Amino acid sequence: MGLIVQKYGGSSVADAEGMKRVANRIVAAKRDGNQVVVVVSAMGDTTDELIELAKQITPIPSGRELDMLLTAGERISMALLAMAITNLGHEARSFTGSQAGVITTSAHGRARIIDVTPGRIQGALKEGAIAIVAGFQGISQDTKDVTTLGRGGSDTTAVALAAALDADVCEIYTDVDGVFSADPRVVPSARKLKTVTYDEMLELAASGAKVLHLRCVEYARRYDLPIHVRSSFSTNEGTWVVKDHPEGADMEQAIISGIAHDKSEAKITIVGVPDRTGVAARIFQAIADADINIDMIVQNVSAAATGLTDISFTLPKAEGADATGVLQKLQGEVGYASIQYDDQIGKLSLVGAGMRSHPGVTATFFGALSAAGVNIEMISTSEIRISVICREADIERGVKAAHTAFELDADQNEAVVYGGSGR
């Protein structure tokens, strides 16, 4: 008997028919002799609707009460799904995040999982029941308040539970058939990947691929837990996220796994920064103190005549106003000339473990972008990733050009987005 943790996204349980289809799939896994734990998201766009409702009441809802409101979405899903499974003749018990033992920090809206103590889940499994857990939520270790985990929280809940239960696999069900070599909405000829390593998936997730979230993959890598990304709308095998590609895997896949893009970033350039020890540290400490995440950083060589340099960095558009405000307060202390803010940019990233040992990848990538008329503004690299910043309007053209240049196009269209959102 195996132990499987399954996670279903909002598009998979968007309505009553979706609930019934998911219930049938869960029961099939149970009939195959497995113990089954299910993590479920809120139905469809419920979370967005609840946020909008809160904003109609007050423009700045308190974090505690907003979390209390938002966790209602997953509670609705878990109860309805448990009813659907019971209707098929199997016992199902639903649990909130706190009942399931998901213990978190106290940061409302973006809490992180500290520990999982799944005693009640294990008890339900021993008694032969299917456990249904509300994703995206937990309970604060300090305050005992209900918390939410932020974007991708249900994925993270599922992997954390799977690790705590020592599950055989965590199945992430979404509305696409797996992880593709590019976003199938942009590149219809994108190829489904049979396997992708944790490191590659981390880079893809950090670079804008939305099928899995960063924290969920980090958790899986830490516990060496296999993730199977697949569609709840079909029975096709999906993509396995594992430590290493299996021996004999397609070598071309091992060189370049995929191309990700992100249109949610902005660029800030601090012009005329004095080039002396400690200035960059002061700037980025102020950004860190404001709890703002930055991505790519470029500092120009200082002009010999003036001793001044420019520093550019990217960050989420949603945090652009806060970052600009923080930097303006520093102008008198640091002595820079001005700030430039640009939110019409996009990030395009090439990811593949084979970059370590295959020369010419960078030349092919930049050559493809040049031929497509895409101008590069910033460059960042890791062992297995090359990222560039360009104009937002050029992003999709660049993705298609790079995808073709690395011969990632499938012979026939494999990508189907069943539910419309890719989640």
What do these coordinates show?
This protein has 423 residues and is an alpha/beta fold. It folds into two domains: 3-175, Acetylglutamate kinase-like (Carbamate kinase, 3-Layer(aba) Sandwich), CATH 3.40.1160.10; 247-412, VC0802-like (2-Layer Sandwich). 34% of the residues lie in helices and 25% in strands. The protein is built from twelve helices and 20 strands. It has helices at 16-31, 46-57, 63-87, 119-126, 153-164, 198-206, 214-223, 251-255, 279-289, 320-334, 361-371, 395-405; strands spanning 3-8, 35-40, 92-95, 102-104, 113-116, 130-134, 137-140, 146-148, 169-174, 195-197, 227-231, 239-242, 258-262, 265-274, 297-299, 308-316, 338-342, 345-351, 378-382, 385-391. It has an eight-stranded mixed sheet with strand order 3-6-2-1-9-11-12-10, sandwiched between helices. Helix 1 (16-31) packs across helix 3. The protein is globular.
Rg from Cα:
23 Å
Q: Share of helix among residues?
A: 25-40%
Low-confidence stretches: none
> Major β-sheet, in short?
8 strands, mixed
Number of domains: 2
CATH H level, superfamily name of the largest domain: Acetylglutamate kinase-like
User: What is the CATH-assigned architecture of the largest domain?
Assistant: 3-Layer(aba) Sandwich
- Shape verdict: globular
**CATH fold-level name of the largest domain:** Carbamate kinase
Instruction: Give the CATH level 1 class of the largest domain.
Output: Alpha Beta
Quote the beta fraction: 15-25%
Helix and strand arrangement:
Elements: E1 3-8, H1 16-31, E2 35-40, H2 46-57, H3 63-87, E3 92-95, E4 102-104, E5 113-116, H4 119-126, E6 130-134, E7 137-140, E8 146-148, H5 153-164, E9 169-174, E10 195-197, H6 198-206, H7 214-223, E11 227-231, E12 239-242, H8 251-255, E13 258-262, E14 265-274, H9 279-289, E15 297-299, E16 308-316, H10 320-334, E17 338-342, E18 345-351, H11 361-371, E19 378-382, E20 385-391, H12 395-405
Parallel strand pairs: 1-2, 1-9, 2-6, 3-6, 4-7, 9-11, 10-12
Antiparallel strand pairs: 4-5, 7-8, 11-12, 13-18, 14-16, 14-17, 15-16, 18-20, 19-20
Helix pairs in contact: 1-3, 2-3, 5-7, 6-7, 9-10, 11-12
